[in-house]
Design goal:
Blueprint: H1 6-16, H2 38-44, H3 50-68, E1 71-77, E2 82-87, H4 89-93, H5 104-108, H6 113-124, E3 131-139, E4 147-157, E5 163-172, H7 174-188, H8 198-211, E6 214-221, H9 224-231, H10 233-251, E7 256-261, E8 264-270, H11 274-289, E9 293-295, E10 298-300, E11 304-311, H12 318-334, E12 340-342, H13 346-368, E13 372-381, E14 386-397, E15 403-405, H14 406-416, H15 419-436, E16 442-446, H16 448-451, H17 454-465, E17 474-479, H18 480-485, H19 487-500, E18 503-509, H20 516-522, E19 526-529, H21 531-534, H22 541-556, E20 560-563, H23 569-578, E21 582-583
Parallel strand pairs: 11-12, 14-16, 16-17, 17-18, 18-19, 19-20, 20-21
Antiparallel strand pairs: 1-2, 1-5, 3-4, 4-5, 6-8, 6-11, 7-8, 9-10, 13-14, 14-15
Helix pairs in contact: 1-3, 9-10, 10-11, 13-14, 15-17, 17-19
């Protein structure tokens, strides 16, 4: 076993034995020895007892164990401020000169506030005899990174309880603290997005609600499962990260944001009322919609739906707020992609339910009384300025003669399962219009609910088969997302429509995740570029790039293109320069239930 040198024995006995070792020749000051190796001690100090020799051997073993544990021993006398050390002081504390910590005052210069308080408590408080104290704090050494130390000390007191002496150990616990921080980080931070985890967001939301009014939103990426299916999980992950980043940019530094599920983020905003929340939600939905996301598998665009709740008026705890925001999100999704809804308490919810029931009654009454109408909006060839076709948009003629636009009754129709009846009635009116106007072409939408219902699609196709004479002048529009929900069924449906003679178009192109492979499988004739990318096109460089990419993609598949929501001449000029085949929007013609060509 390695032997202690004289100075090492001297320091250890001073610290470990507290100056209680027996006196011996060569002593230089009270409580210390000045001797050589253990064998020399035996030769020159034969009067030493066997007990003393045993204590020296034990000190040797303790020194080795202390060094292996990464610790040092200190002996501090508060009255004088003197501190004596034993062990690898330089290695444990990261200092080049042990004299830099030879007194308590010098030692404290390297401590953080937590360490300063711990040392002050040791020296200034009244303690019970032999009291054990533990503390953890940072030690800052010059030119080195701070390290964490564990301080375990025994306090020796006078009869009045005042501190006479403190003997303890310091151990480097930096590695443990770093590992603990990493574990804590992983428990609080979502690894993919860098935002809070669901649990930590819940805690933060509770804190914010306790401090004052807080709005909470759950933001869900629409149809992420479709993106996964079409492009793969890598592309979906890129989209999730991009949305999380955009949320942080839009919401500001005061918001707390966390990832609460695979495609969902939670966001707590202090002090927001209903109007501010609605405005923020719109900003978020616009900002996400305008993003062009480059993934390993291609360029995609996504939309988000938002459900929100106000706390504490409608939810006095984070758990209630998060649950009720999910209820609001379900209502937002019922409106279609990119929807928004604020949680309603019982009375409001009952009012909403009654409104939906009332709309259901109006829909059934309109179907029974033949008050379902089509508003025709022209799809214009920019080269000739003439309408190439007319899109059929559903309307309800109220008993008082007013028209109810689709946006006011279609969500209720979907919620009540009545939208299939509306689709069927619109098809019947469209076929009759085609039969009475031989030079007209019509385009009509198949709702997502009908597109996902095999029996409804079968009925639609059967009706067309019975009207093969006019079917070639009909364009059937399937939304991109609905077409991809059951790609195999959509492929069968589009093939049957084409066999009958009808044309097929993908509506809202770009809002979903159509890939080259899916376009090829669907064998459609036309794509309609989603209007959200056309609106304000001249002012959005990202949308310019995205629309140009969509047009190029369609051209490669020899598909005709229609741009929706064209609002001015500047947008029309840009789209024509890109090679878009047809334009549609209020600038070119508003929907009309009695256009001149029909009269």
């Amino acid at each position: 076993m390695p032997k202690l040198e004289g100075p090492e024995i001297r320091h250890f006995l001073k610290v470990g034995a507290l100056g209680s070792a027996p006196e011996a020749p060569g002593r230089t000051h009270p409580g210390t020895f000045c001797v050589g190796r253990s064998k020399a001690v035996l030769r020159r100090q034969s009067e030493l007892s066997l007990q003393t020799l045993a204590s020296v051997a034990e000190a040797d073993r303790l020194r080795i164990a202390l060094s292996a544990a990464g610790g040092v021993v200190y002996d501090w006398t508060p009255d004088t401020g003197e501190v004596s050390w034993a062990g690898d002081v330089q290695g444990v504390l990261g200092i080049s000169d042990p004299s830099a910590v030879s007194s308590e005052a010098l030692f404290r210069k390297h401590l953080d506030p937590q360490g300063l308080q711990a040392r002050a408590n040791l020296a200034e408080a009244i303690h019970a005899p032999g009291a054990l104290h533990c503390a953890e704090f940072k030690f800052n050494a010059a030119a080195q990174a701070p390290r964490w130390l564990e301080d375990r000390a025994v306090v020796f007191t006078r009869p009045n309880g005042q501190v006479e002496r403190v003997v303890g150990t310091l151990r480097d616990i930096t590695a443990r603290k770093t590992a603990d921080a990493q574990v804590l980080q992983s428990a609080h931070i979502d690894e993919m997005t860098g935002h809070l985890t669901r649990g930590r967001l819940r805690d933060r939301l509770n804190e914010m609600v306790a401090q004052g009014p807080t709005a909470y939103c759950v933001v869900a990426i629409d149809d992420l499962a479709v993106l996964n299916e079409v492009y793969g999980t890598d592309a979906a992950d890129v989209a999730i990260v991009a949305v999380g980043r955009k949320l942080a940019e839009t919401a500001g530094a005061h918001a707390a944001i966390g990832r609460t599920a695979g495609n969902k983020f939670g966001m707590a905003v202090p002090g927001a009322d209903a109007l501010a929340l609605q405005t923020l939600s719109q900003e978020i939905r616009n900002a996400v919609r305008d993003m062009v996301i480059t993934t390993p598998c291609g360029v995609v665009s996504v939309s988000v739906s938002v459900g929100a709740v106000l706390a504490p008026c409608d939810a006095d705890t984070a758990q209630k707020a998060m649950a009720r925001a999910e209820v609001a999100l379900d209502r937002a999704k019922a409106q279609g992609r990119g929807g928004y809804a604020l949680y309603e308490h019982a009375e409001q919810a009952e009012s909403t339910r009654l409104r939906v029931v009332s709309l259901g009654d109006q829909i059934l009454s309109a179907l029974a009384d033949d008050r379902v109408r089509i508003a025709y909006q022209p799809i214009v060839d920019p080269k000739t300025g003439k309408a190439e076709a007319q899109e059929c948009l559903a309307r309800i003629l109220k008993p008082d003669g007013q028209l109810l636009p689709a946006g006011e009754f279609i969500p209720a129709a979907e919620q009540l399962g009545l939208v299939r009846l509306i689709d069927r009635r619109i098809l019947e009116i469209a076929l009759d219009t085609l039969r009475r106007n031989a030079d007209v072409r019509l385009a009509l939408n198949v709702s997502g609910m009908t597109a996902s219902d095999r029996l409804a699609l079968e009925g639609f196709a059967t009706t067309l088969e019975m009207n093969r004479d006019v079917a070639p002048r009909l364009i059937v529009e399937l939304t991109e997302t609905a077409a991809l929900l059951d790609l195999e069924e959509s492929v069968r449906f589009t093939a049957r429509l084409r066999d009958i003679g009808a044309k097929v178009a993908i509506d809202d192109f770009g809002a979903g995740y159509t890939s080259f492979r899916n376009l090829q499988a669907l064998r459609v004739d036309m794509v309609k570029i989603d209007g959200s990318f056309v609106k304000g096109l001249a002012l959005s460089p990202d949308n310019l790039v995205f629309v140009r990419t969509l047009v190029d993609l369609a051209r490669n598949f020899r598909l005709q293109t229609v741009a929706e929501w064209v609002s001015d001449q500047r947008e029309a000029d840009i789209l024509c320069a890109m090679g878009v085949d047809f334009l549609q929007g209020f600038y070119l013609g508003k929907p009309d239930i009695a256009p001149e060509w029909l009269r």
